[in-house]
Design a protein that fits this description.
single chain; 255 residues; four-stranded parallel sheet; 12 strands; disordered C terminus
Length: 255
Amino acid sequence: MPTVTLRFYEELNDFLPSPLRKRDIEREIQPGESLKHLIESMGVPHTEIEVVLVNGISVDLGPQLQGGERISVYPQFESLDVTPLLRLRERPLRTTRFVTDAHLGRLARYLRLLGFDTLFFNDIGDQRLVEISVSERRILLTRDRALLMRRTITHGCYVHAIEPWLQLAEVVERLDLTGQIRPFSRCMVCNGAIVAIRKEHIEEPLPDQVIRQHDQFWRCRDCRKIYWQGSHYSNLLKSIAGLVADNGSSGDVVS
């Protein structure tokens, strides 16, 4: 059987068994096997990859292998200029929007807290998630590697962390989102946009204590939920500021 030599770099090694990490891997192939099939057969979803070099030449995932090739596989880059190379995605997303699978509901709420348009469903299948990701050009967030290996997915992100706030920090860091954070601008319940509303225009019943203590209110345009700066507001603001600081931004949190 012909063989090829692969090397995966940086966080792509997290998808590999420990004995195969950060080293050259010799792998038997079927003549004519596609590069995409080979890489994903080792557990690395194509959505996690930015650049692939075959014998030092930048390629997409389409080429068929014959044996003897040396393959270098690199993750998505945030700071390194790789524009002279062939990126695997034809064009970047103009607007950062997300759709999460059924297991990332808390992460979806936290992304909405930061102001990101994030869809979450707990009652639709994987195929529908894929269709929404592709048709609406949304980044699919999931902990299901097999889901990200579907051929039609172009923008996806495997979430490594288990705890929801750590998942949020991971996504913010990996996708370099700190400059796009607009906290409290989107409804955590339904994802609708939040707009200011005058106190005298509120028709919904509110607790007497809230009416006495607060003069500023906001309403979700979609579900009509009313928001105000309650006791939890300052704690959330501090948590968001800490998240931004941890990702290397010295600017103020926009609220």
